[in-house]
C-alpha cells in the first residue's frame, strides 16, 4: 500500500508508492513498437483494464466495449487508492495511508495519436471528460485537491505510449499549489483584479509573447518561462476550475488548444511534453473564487534537468520566450 508522508524539513509531502515500480514501460525507443493487440488502452482491448468509471460513447455502445471516444478507468499502478483514508502520527513522522483517487483518462481509442494530431472534436471530448471527472470527484469531501496532468513521450516521464491523461485526487493541497492559490487570493485582495487578468492585459500590451487567442482565452509564452517553448493558456474572465466552465468557453478553449498544439508541432516536430490543467483546491469554494482563473500550461521537455534545478527550484531555459512566441506565431520578419 502507498503512503503520503509529510516532509517536515521542507513543509511538503511525498507519495511513497512501491506499486508504481510494477508499471511496464513501453515508451523507450527500443520497445516503442508495442503491439496494439497488447495495449490495454486500445479500442477492442477494454477487458485488459479495470472497469470504466466514465466514457463518452457513440451510438449507445455498451460500457467496457468498443465504441468510445474517451474512456476513464482506475489506474492499475496507482500512486494512491480511494479506499484508505487513515492519517497517522508517530513522533516527528506524520503520514496518511495513500488515500486518494488515481484515474487514467484514455484520450483516444487510436494508439498512435499524439495530442498534436487531435482535431476539435477530440479536444472537446477530452475537455468534457476532464470537466465530468472533476465535477464527480468534488462530491467526495475527503478529496481536497485534484492534479490533472498529461505526460507525453519518454522524456516527459510517460511509461505508456497510448495517449492518456492522469487525474490524482489527494486528501491534502500540495505546498506549491497552496502557495499559488494563496498568492492569487492576496493579489485579488490588493489589486481588485485577478493575477491572470493583469498578466494577460500586460502581455496583450507587450504583444511580443502572445501566440493566439479564441474568445476569452489567450495563449502566450510566459515572461518567465521555465521551459523552452512553454505555453500558457489563460482567460481574463473565465473563473476557477474546469468543472465550472460553460460549453461555450470549453469550445473556445478546445479550438485554441488545437491551434497551439499544431503550432508547437510545426516548430518542434515530435516532442515530449507535460501539460497541466489548473484546479483550485476543493471544498472551500475556491473554484468559485474570483481570484482564480482556468489555466492550461504546456511544458515541452526538450532538455533534462539536474541537481541545480532540484536544489533551487530554479529552471534554466535556453530559449527566450519572445523568440519562442515569434516562431510559434509563424512570423517571418521583425
Ligand atoms: Zn493503444
Number of helices: 6
Q: Strand tally, please?
A: 14
Q: What amount of the residues lies in strands?
A: 15-25%
Shape: globular
Looking at the overall shape, the CATH architecture of the largest domain is 2-Layer Sandwich
- The percent of residues in helical segments reads 25-40%
| Helix-strand topology string | EEEEEEEHEEHHEEEHEEHH
Q: Give the overall pLDDT as a whole number.
A: 88
- Report the span from N to C terminus: 57 Å
CATH H-level homologous superfamily name of the largest domain? HIT-like
What CATH calls the topology of the largest domain is: HIT family, subunit A
Evaluate the radius of gyration: 20 Å
> For the record, what CATH class of the largest domain applies?
Alpha Beta
Segments where pLDDT lies below 50 for 5+ residues?
29-33
User: Which structural category do the helix and sheet elements fall into?
Assistant: alpha+beta
What profile does the largest beta sheet have? Answer: 10 strands, antiparallel
Distinct bound molecules = zinc ion
**In the residues, how many domains can be counted?**
2
* Order of adjacent strands in the largest pleated sheet: 3-4-7-9-8-13-14-12-11-10
